[in-house]
Write a structure and sequence with these properties.
It is a single chain. The chain has about 325 residues and is an alpha+beta fold. The chain has two domains: about 200 residues, Rossmann fold, CATH 3.40.50; about 90 residues, Thrombin, subunit H. Helices cover about 20% and strands about 35% of the residues. The protein has four helices and 14 strands. The strands form three sheets. A seven-stranded antiparallel beta sheet has the order 6-14-9-12-13-8-7, with no helix packed on it. It has a five-stranded mixed beta sheet with strand order 2-1-3-4-5, covered by helices on one side. β7 and β8 form a beta hairpin. α2 packs across α4. The longest helix is centred in the middle third of the chain and has 23 residues. The protein is elongated and about 100 Å long.
Length: about 325
């Protein structure tokens, strides 16, 4: 009888040990897999000036009874910040602040700064919106275990606009999903609380799917610059060190094409220009992107130095 009791006690302890070992909480979150390829160290490219013009929330998320449309929607700000971070990480753009420009100008005014601060024009504008956002919780209960799954789905739409022509050169919608799973066995383990970070992850996944296409569409178009002045000091163009310009670089000079009106759309269209000269960078100056410049010399062809606005300087694509 004693032996039977001892064996029973051993068996009970063994079962309890197995249950305790198996009573662990499993937490799984979808990882953001950024599709931006690593930039090779030896690769050199001229940075494009890009500004995120606006980001809107077209869903009903975060628009409760106390929602104030005049104040920044947290989802809009969140999406714009995530996009700006990912574009900056690519090291291919000179990002210009547009979302909080009014706050920057106000701070400069309070500090007694120059109200006529230089505002650098962007080559491309990004217009975005959160078009889909949803959260769902699913529970599963068995005899000895139960689990809870939280899932967030997000959809983000982006448009890339060429500032010079107003043309939308890229438009696409990306979708992302983030999931967290919590599981308990025999009542042991952690319970799953509301995970607010899932919304960040879902939006980040959606934007990550579009970032590489934005990069490719910008980089496939030649870098552009403009003549600023021509005097006894030399010929000066916009752009400098922060955009990747260096002494010895050579660029094509295009004479702008004729502007004609499209009768179908009513919009003015600039016809393709022709190469009339080449310029070489002799000096780069300026302390920041706002006041950078480069001095150039003409190595081939000629330009009308009295009508510098008729020309466009472009990167020579190899």
């Amino acid at each position: 009888m004693k032996k039977i009791i001892q064996n029973t006690i051993i068996l009970v302890f063994a079962i309890i040990s197995i249950v305790v070992v198996s009573c662990t909480t499993h937490h799984k979150v979808v990882k953001v897999q950024t599709q931006i390829q690593e930039v090779k160290k030896e690769e050199r490219s001229l940075k494009r000036k890009v500004a995120i013009a606006r980001f809107t929330n077209e869903t009903q998320y975060a628009k409760g009874i106390f929602y104030d449309k005049n104040n920044n929607n947290p989802v809009e700000k969140q999406a714009a910040d995530i996009l700006a971070t990912k574009l900056s990480a690519s090291s291919k753009f000179l990002l210009l602040e547009r979302q909080d420009l009014d706050k920057i100008l106000e701070e400069i005014k309070l500090n007694g700064g120059n109200e006529g601060i230089q505002k650098v024009g962007a080559d491309y504008l990004i217009i975005g919106s959160v078009t889909e956002f949803g959260r769902k919780n699913v529970g599963d209960q068995n005899v000895f275990s139960r689990s809870k799954t939280q899932t967030v789905n997000a959809g983000v739409s982006l448009r890339l606009v060429d500032v010079q022509t107003g043309e939308i050169i890229y438009s696409e919608e990306g979708k992302g999903e983030a999931t967290a799973i919590a599981k308990t066995t025999m009542g042991l383990g952690e319970t799953a609380d509301f995970d607010a970070t899932l919304s960040d992850k879902a939006i980040s996944v959606a934007i990550s799917k579009l970032v590489e296409n934005i990069i490719n569409n910008c980089m496939n178009r030649p870098w552009k610059s403009y003549f600023l002045s021509n005097d006894e000091n030399g010929i000066i163009i916009s752009g400098g060190k922060s955009q990747g310009l260096k002494i010895g670089d050579i660029f094509d000079v295009y004479e702008k094409g004729k502007s004609v009106k499209n009768p179908q759309t009513g919009m003015m269209i600039e016809l393709p220009g022709k190469i009339v000269a080449k310029v070489k960078i002799d000096f780069v100056g300026g302390e920041n992107p706002q006041n950078e410049f480069s001095m150039v010399s003409i190595t081939e062809g000629t330009i009308d130095k009295q009508n510098l606005n008729n020309y466009l300087i472009k990167e020579i694509k190899k």
